[in-house]
């Protein structure tokens, strides 16, 4: 994969969005998340360049920071939401309701009602029960709501995070969906297409193309067999980014070349059909770095431990998902790595280790550790309430300007939500 230094180093020193480390840390203490606006822009531009005929729906679950959502909306993205909170965030960020897709296996009646009232483009339904619920909500509101059928396909997948191919809480099983929806004529719904999210963190271009080919054939067949007009195909997403040094970048240009030819081959059937990718990680992961300051360094039975002020409480993904994020000593970016360390946070459990066996320059108290590719599934996937520690800030950096986009939350703030009975 491309080295971290290719994106976050200038003249041997840490740099993000034209700002150095001192500027990033000037307004907020560690731990904190910093995001490069330019890297978000370039990731979105690369996808649109490769897939000009596709709409890109940003998956808010990757990072729902309002400033990031607003930026992607300004670039032309739609929104893929999975909860009432994400829908409200998308609307506040300025996404047009006609570019919002609502997906998720356990939508509540309140969530569906809000989606219908808002007039979003499509609710992606995952069962016959949910299809009936959308119809009932739309009927009560005297609205018509487009729906896409989420399909649990039989296609083979080899990604670490596979969501199709076996028993699943997600979607209609491919082999039964026609019988479940054929003949449905609810006055509140219009079935207009299908959605398939097969796998996440896919780095092989061939797998993504094979998925697209499979879903295209499936959508055309289901439209005929279930009797609906095909107006939209949502191919899901799953575009991965490399984390470990031995992982390769996804070659989206290779996917593009074959996929665009495939769509052209079926242009007659796809005239006016909306083609959609749901992308989150691919758009924002590489933009982010998690910064945490070294409190101390110790050695125990032959192993060296770096102790930092932020660990699994503020960045849980390396611990619970086993992801090997790149780790650097950002105040010594140009120094050679000399020793091997385990980078651990302040949490009272031995699993609180956000980097194991990491080679770094000699570490001293006061140094700053950067954990990279942290723009997706970082802040909002973490255990912020554990041990009542402060919550980190988030900053966006562009043209050397550092702007706080989410203020830090002091530990005492959690007490404001609590009462002592009696």
Low-confidence blocks of residues: none
CATH class of the largest domain: Alpha Beta
Gyration radius over CA: 23 Å
Structural class: alpha/beta
Strand content: 25-35%
Describe the biggest sheet? 9 strands, mixed
Question: Overview of this structure, please?
Answer:
With 422 residues, the chain is of the alpha/beta class. It has 2 domains: 5-34 and 286-417, Lyase, Ornithine Decarboxylase, Chain A, domain 1 (Beta Barrel); 103-279, Alpha-Beta Barrel (TIM Barrel). The chain is 28% helix and 27% strand. The protein has 13 helices and 23 strands. The chain has helices spanning 5-8, 21-26, 37-50, 66-75, 84-92, 109-118, 128-140, 177-181, 205-226, 252-265, 267-270, 281-284, 317-320, and strands at residues 9-10, 13-16, 19-20, 32-36, 55-59, 78-81, 100-102, 122-125, 145-152, 161-162, 172-173, 189-195, 199-200, 232-234, 274-279, 288-300, 303-308, 327-329, 339-344, 353-360, 368-372, 393-398, 401-406. Strands 4, 16, 17, 18, 19, 20, 21, 22 and 23 form a 9-stranded mixed β-sheet that branches. Strands 5-6-7-8-9-12-14-15 form an 8-stranded parallel β-barrel, surrounded by 5 helices. Strands 1-2-3 form a 3-stranded antiparallel β-sheet. Strand 5, helix 4 and strand 6 (78-81) form a beta-alpha-beta unit. The longest helix has 22 residues, at 205-226. The relative contact order is 0.16.
């Amino acid at each position: 994969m491309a080295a971290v230094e290719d994106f976050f180093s200038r003249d041997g020193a840490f740099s993000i969005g034209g700002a150095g480390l001192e500027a990033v840390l000037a307004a907020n203490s560690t731990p904190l998340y910093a995001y490069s606006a330019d890297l978000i822009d370039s990731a979105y531009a690369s996808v649109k360049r490769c897939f000009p005929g596709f709409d890109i729906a940003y998956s808010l679950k990757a990072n729902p920071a309002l400033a990031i959502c607003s930026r992607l909306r300004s670039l032309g993205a739609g929104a893929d939401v999975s909860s009432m909170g994400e829908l409200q965030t998308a609307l506040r960020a300025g996404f047009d309701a006609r570019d919002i897709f609502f997906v998720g296996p356990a939508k509540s009646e309140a969530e569906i009602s809000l989606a219908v009232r808002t007039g979003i483009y499509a609710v992606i339904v995952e069962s016959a029960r949910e299809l009936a619920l959308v119809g009932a909500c739309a009927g009560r509101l005297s609205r018509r709501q487009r729906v896409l059928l989420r399909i649990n396909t039989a296609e083979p997948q080899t990604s670490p995070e596979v969501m199709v191919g076996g028993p699943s809480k997600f979607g209609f099983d491919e082999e039964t969906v026609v019988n479940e929806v054929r003949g449905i004529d609810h006055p509140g719904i219009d079935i207009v297409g299908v959605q398939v999210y097969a796998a996440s963190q896919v780095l092989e271009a061939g797998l993504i193309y094979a998925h697209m080919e499979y879903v295209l054939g499936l959508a055309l067949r289901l439209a005929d067999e279930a009797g609906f007009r095909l107006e939209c195909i949502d191919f899901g997403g799953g575009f991965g980014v490399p984390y470990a040094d031995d992982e390769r970048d996804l070659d989206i240009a290779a996917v593009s070349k074959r996929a665009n030819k495939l769509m052209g081959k079926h242009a007659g059937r796809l005239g006016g059909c909306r083609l959609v990718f749901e992308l989150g990680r691919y758009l924002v992961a590489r933009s982010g770095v998690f910064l945490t300051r070294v409190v101390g360094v110790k050695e125990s039975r032959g192993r060296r431990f770096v102790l930092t002020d932020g660990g699994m409480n503020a960045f849980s993904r390396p611990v619970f998902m086993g992801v090997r994020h790149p780790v650097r000593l950002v105040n010594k970016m140009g120094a050679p790595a000399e020793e091997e360390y385990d980078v651990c946070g302040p949490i009272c459990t031995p699993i609180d280790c956000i980097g194991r066996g990491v080679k770094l320059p000699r570490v001293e108290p006061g140094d700053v550790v950067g954990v990279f590719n942290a723009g997706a599934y970082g802040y909002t996937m973490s255990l912020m309430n554990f041990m009542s520690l402060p919550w980190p800030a988030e900053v966006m950096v562009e043209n050397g300007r550092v702007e706080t986009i989410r203020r830090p939350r002091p530990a005492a703030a959690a007490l404001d939500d609590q009462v002592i009975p009696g």
